[in-house]
Amino acid sequence: MGGTTTGGITVCSTDPTAHPITLAGHVGSILTWQQSTDITNPNSWQDIPSTANQAVYTYTAPLTRTTYYRAIVQSGVCDTAISSVTTIQVVTPASRPNAGSDQYICNNTTATLSAGNISNAASVSWRDINNTSALITSSSTATTTVTNLQVGSNYAFEFTLNGLGTCPATKDTVALFVRPLVTQASIQGPDTVLICGYVRGNGLATYNLIANTTSRSFEKGVW
What is the pTM of this model? Predict the structure, then answer.
């Protein structure tokens, strides 16, 4: 009886951690462990040196391709037996997401967040970095709406790609600036000024036009 191997896992191609594979339920001695990167080809199995009589085998990391492992067992003069196969699936890291450009929103309490460049991810998520009263409609989708924004406030949202297997998460952030309607512009003094008389010199005169000012740093007026 070749026994059963366990320890299959999905790992990142950049993961430096080696994981153990265990053989149990076998009868006889372990002659060797074998590995293959093409389970469909019966001739692809290769003996792994110095693995006789090891019930636990730990592969060398990192792996760059999905690899299959099994053990060869023999009891006395009986024919050799083959254990079950354990798969170490290798996946590539998650892409670097793009949470979108910063948004300037005018007098609105709702906005849309939309992330791109999504690949090799097990799942996605949005979160409000500052834990404000804003409500994310669907935090587990790439595109979602945000409600309950407060006019005059700033927000920061983080988008995360959770990597497959042991691959780390990747993140990006986007800022929202919710602005009120601009202040009504006005000119100080009367709207109409009658100028008459003779100006000496080159015939040119200078007059100052003064508009109202605002306490909002993000508002700028243009003549």
Answer: 0.74
